[in-house]
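User: I'm curious whether this sequence folds into something compact or stays loose and floppy. Could you predict its structure so I can see for myself?
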Amino acid sequence: MTLALVSLGCAKNAVDLQLLAGDYIKKRGYTLSPDPDRADVVIVNTCAFIASAREEAEREIRRALALKARGDYGKVVVAGCYPQRYPKAIGAFPGVDVWQGVPKGWQAPKLPGLRFTGKAFAYLKIAEGCSHRCSYCAIPSIRGKFTSRPLKDILDEAKALLDTGCRELDIVAQDPMMYGAPNLPTLLWELDKLPGKFWVRVLYSYPSEISADFVDWLNFSKHAVKYVDVPLQHTVPEVLAKMNRKGAIAATLDIADILREAVEGITLRTTVMTGFPGETDARFERMRADLKRMQFDHLGAFAYSPEKGTKGYRMSGRPSRKIAEERERIVMEDAEELWRIRSARMIGTVHEALVVAPNVCRMASQAPDVDGVVHFEGNAEVGSFIKVRLDGAENFDCTGVKV
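Assistant: Here's the prediction. I'll summarize afterward.
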């Protein structure tokens, strides 16, 4: 019996699919299909965070059903956030055999576990759900309240991953800073005790929750990657208030300067939203100026998607979708200009990097999937650390030579 997989959405979603697919493989005796478009069972693991994610999920479900009708798939399983958010929507997709939402509670992976990221790195999920109530976000209604995973389970999984040759553990949750079993710095220092050379990177840091203990870990841990992803969403207090960002409002404008002063050589990433209710032309231009002043190393932007069931959905003063998308384009043009200036300064410099695929590596300043990679010349084993001299940059990727 063969199994095909379609993974949509974020890294946290991919971890869920690893668990679900591992259940089919280990308990039910399936093997992964060598042809992703032909199998006895296909699992389409979905996202439903914003409109574009839902549209992608619907396309992939229909595509799977078309392949089933042709005889290429035996059964179609739809899992994840889409069926969780829309439990009755199965009626729109006749032919789906299983319609199941997100896992209830936390399922500890069978170790050694299935991993989609390859040998070099892995996502280590430390919690489920979210207890923030940002007015634009449907995640709490989909995933429930924030629940921390037991410390021992996380450490056991981390040890198993490292034993397989994994050399980067990427900590993920809706908000890792909220981890409370007992707290995130304690977990990070426990990970630091594990033997061998490897990186630990924390992905997503709510700006008002970055603590002195976390900064100490960044500065003094032998495994810490000095990288902080701190999604601001916006910089204008009036817009942040409508977003219900609460304590993050006061921290937003200063967090980049504070972290750069506290951690030498840190890399900073942020994400902002355009077109939220209350964002006027003047407020958008103020955000652009703030972002240029803050000089984030990596910057992403997306246009606001009004989501039913959230407070933002019925708010007045929302710019049109066209304006939101135009503003998104402008922010990304600004980001590309900053990157051109920054990458030009990097030509000729040498950096430690982790080889993640043949002739592809990532520096500590590059998080997986979002920040680009380095295409390098020279021989190196996947999962090894090398020194690479940068000699070029194109879009958000770099080129270099192993030295």
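Summary: Residues 2-100 form a domain with the Rossmann fold fold (CATH 3.40.50.12160). The mean pLDDT is 94.
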